[in-house]
Amino acid sequence: MLMLCSARDSSRVVSAPESVLRGLAPDGGLFVPVRIPRIGIEGLLDADYCTIARKVFSAFLPGYSPEAIERSILGAYDGKFACPEITPVVPAGDRYVLELFRGPTAAFKDIALSALPRLMSEARANDTDGRGILVVTATSGDTGSAALNGFRDVPGTGIIVFYPEYGISEVQRLQMTAAQGANISVCAVRGNFDDAQRGVKQAFTRIGDGMRLSSANSINYGRLVPQIVYYYAAYLSLVRLGAVRPGEKVNFSVPTGNFGDILAGWYAKESGLPVGRLLCASNANDVLTAMIRDGRYDRMRKFRTTLSPSMDILVSSNFERLLFHLTDGDSVCVSSLMRSLAEQGSYTMPAEAFGRLRESFLGVSVGDGETKDTIRSVFRGTGYLLDPHTAVAWRAADEVREENGAPWVVLATASPYKFAGTVLDALGEPVPGDGRRQLEALRTLTGKEIPAPLSAALERPVRFRDSVDRDGIEAAIRKAGELL
Ligand SMILES: *Cc1c(COP(=O)(O)O)cnc(C)c1O
């Protein structure tokens, strides 16, 4: 059976359910499959999303029974998304947009965070520690509402989300404070995101083994696997649209932050999906662009706040997993590179691994000015409305068009309505102030429907009004634990 191990210690193997429960290996490494399973497109040409998901989950999540996989997939996707395709492909201009934001909170993170809680719950059902799991998350935006929705009423789990009082949008706040579910709590932290995150980390350490805590952030292997599915689904849609014949290659442009989304694309490619190039599209935080150009990862640079905030990141955690695979599972090497990153702030990839990286990946960085130009020109030219993250990926693909003649798919990671202020500004019709007015203004200007989950969030009554200082986080976690 396929097993997983820590990217920093291949002698320590675990099953997939164990990795999902643990999140991170005891040595601080991320869990990786020891080898990448084979899937391919044979027999999938007419498959719907859940059928593809069954195939991908069975291959990449050994140790889960077929029944557990079936329950997880149906619980995550059946009737929960705005369209039956789950992740539709829409032709726009000379390329295709893969819409990943049709889920229950209108965020790309819904796809993974709808499945992860169910994978955790199934894994817990088989282990000897009978306690429920409390998921504790500090969020600066989209992850909070997607995680609340994903864990909502999942047996054996509870969740508490801390958000900073300053630095999130009104729509994002309402999506969390008016969220539904009996096993959820939401609490503001008086301070910024950093205060919230540091407070949560300290509370984690103090509580120790006293409670069974976990996190919903993107290093969990159970969050990665559901993302492999939509690369297959997109490819098969292109076949049905007549854009490629089965076996011909397709390129993907991916707006990248923590490297989870694009890594899932690489797993799809290695498992037999005909993928040409994976374009790692970054904003002004261009750590990965430099890495793909020079083979050197250097986080010692200025952190920039941009119009695509979910990609503002200097350490892309999931890159560690790719290092493991590109060095043929040399966990001693990965461990020393990660030590160098922590201690010196940089490392250089071994030459052979770097050569392999360049066979699959391209990297382009796009500034805020180009992002806004792209939103405007694509809307005028094709009628398609991009959010700022998707606009980065669209623009990046412009820079490498001639590459190999294969069609391009741009991954759309947010609804333009989640960033209505920026989008209005880019279209030359800025509307100051509050979220509700901006949503209405964007609808009037573009004629596009506001996603139902966003308008619903604005209508629901606020349930959670608590706010704490950093010191109050631990008590809030203990109280949330009583709901388990
Ligand atoms: C999280 C996020 C990303 C980045 O995805 P990674 O898997 O972290 O690379 C891009 N766009 C949006 C809108 C996101 O929420």
Order of adjacent strands in the largest pleated sheet: 4-5-15-10-11-14
Radius of gyration: 21 Å
Compute the separation of the termini in Å.
Answer: 34 Å
Percentage of helical residues? 40-55%
What does this structure look like?
The protein has helices at 16-22, 49-60, 66-77, 109-125, 142-151, 170-177, 193-207, 221-240, 260-270, 287-294, 319-326, 331-344, 351-360, 368-382, 388-399, 420-426, 435-446, 452-459, 473-481; strands spanning 4-6, 9-14, 31-33, 89-92, 95-99, 133-138, 157-164, 184-189, 213-214, 250-255, 275-282, 296-298, 346-348, 361-365, 408-412, 467-468. By secondary structure, the chain is α/β, with parallel strands linked by helices. Helix 8 (221-240) packs across helix 9 and helix 16 (420-426) packs across helix 17. The longest helix is centred in the middle third of the chain and has 20 residues, at 221-240.
Question: Brief overview, please?
Answer:
The protein is built from 19 helices and 16 strands. The mean pLDDT is 93. It starts with a strand and ends with a helix.
